[in-house]
Amino acid sequence: MARGRPREFDTEQALDSALALFWRNGYEGTSLAALTDAVGVTPTSLYAAFGNKEALFKRVVDRYIQGPANYLLRAVAEPTARGVAEAALAGAIGMVMNPKHPDGCLLVHGALAAHPDLAPIREELSRRRAGAEAAVRQRFRRAAEDGELPGTADADRLAGFLMTVIWGMSVQAAGGAGRADLERAAETALSAWPGVPARAGRRRRTGGSGPRRSAGSKRRGV
Predict the structure, then answer these.
(1) What are the residues whose beta carbons fall under 8 Å from the beta carbon of 75, sequence distance 6 or more?
(2) Residue 138: closest CA among 170, 168, 163
(3) pLDDT digits (tens, 9 = 90+) for 114-158
(4) Is the Cβ–Cβ distance between 74 and 90 less than 8 Å?
C-alpha cells in the first residue's frame, strides 16, 4: 500500500507561527496571505492541514492556553487559595512582560475590534475566558468548603475579582505599562484578600512566590 504524500510543513511549527501572528495582530488583522507567508505554504495546503481560518484560530488558542498562558493551570494547583492568587498574578505578569511574546493576552485582544460577522470568534474567546474563571472559581469554592476562606468570603466573587485584575493587567501592559506598574496592581489586589492580610509579594515558604519586582525587567511597550 502506497504511503500518503508527506506534509509540506511541520504542523507544530506552523501553529507556533500562526500563534505569533494572531497574538500580535488579532483575528481580523491576520490575513490569509500573512499566515501562508509565515508558514511557507499555499492556502490549499494550510486549509488541508487545519481547515478554515476559524478552525486554525481555535487550534492556536488551544496552543496558547497550554503554552504561554499555562500559568493559570499551574496556579490552581497551589496548596492554598491565596497561593493560587499569588501564582496567577505573578504568572500573568511574567507572561505579558516576556520580551519574546507579543503584547497583552490573546484571549483579551484577539477579537476586540472584530467585524460583526466575526461574532463567533468573540464568543469563542469569551468562552475561553469564562473557562479560566470557572477553574479558579471551583478552586476557591473548595477552599471555602475546607474552611480555608473566612465565612464572609464569596468564592465566586473572589474568582471574578482575580480574573478581572489579570485581564486588566493585560490591557495595561499592551498600552505601555511596565512591570513595576503591574506589580503594584497585583500587590493592591492581594491587600484586599479576605482574612488576615499578608505582606503582598512576599516569598512563600512553600517554594513559590507572589508578584515581586525584579531589576531591569521593564521592556518597551509593555
Answers:
(1) 84, 85, 87, 88, 91, 136
(2) 163
(3) 678 888 999 999 999 999 999 999 999 999 999 999 989 999 999
(4) no
* Local structure of 209: helix, strand or coil: strand
- Measure the CA dihedral 75/77/78/79, to 10°: 160
C-alpha 197/C-alpha 193 separation (Å) is 6
Helix (H/G/I), strand (E/B), else coil: 203:
strand
How far is CA 6 from each of CA 1, 2, 3, 11, 166, rounded to the nearest angstrom? Answer: 15, 12, 8, 11, 42
- What sign results for the dihedral spanned by CA atoms 76, 79, 81, 86? negative
| pLDDT score at 199 | 43
Amino acid, single-letter form, for residue 155:
A
Cβ atoms of 184 and 191 closer than 8 Å: no
Predicted TM-score (pTM) of the model is 0.81
DSSP 149-186: S-TT--HHHHHHHHHHHHHHHHHHHHTT--HHHHHHHH
Whole-angstrom distance, CA of residue 192 vs CA of residue 107: 26
Residue 113, pLDDT score: 65
Q: How far apart are CA 11 and CA 124, in angstroms?
A: 23
pLDDT band at 195 (very low <50, low <70, confident <90, very high): confident
